[in-house]
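TL;DR need C-alpha cells for one chain.
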Amino acid sequence: GLRIAVVGVCDSQSLVMAKGVPDGELSDECLEKICRLKSSGSLLSEMDLIDGLEVYGICDMIPKLADIAKSMGEST
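>> reply
TL;DR here they are.
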C-alpha cells in the first residue's frame, strides 16, 4: 500500500515540522491537533509548546524548507 509521511506543515506565518527530518514525521495525533488549531483560526506558531516539534517563523521558513528539500533529495 501507499504510505505518506508528513514532515511539516506551513501557514502564511510559520512552519511546524517534526524533529529529525528527514527521518522524523508528524504523528496522526499531531496532524489532528494542527487541523483543530487551524480550524479555530489560530496560527501554527502557537504549537511551539508541543514536544517533538520545531517551529520556524516567516523569516526562517524559506531557508529551512530549502535545507529540508536538499537533505531529502540526498537521502533518496
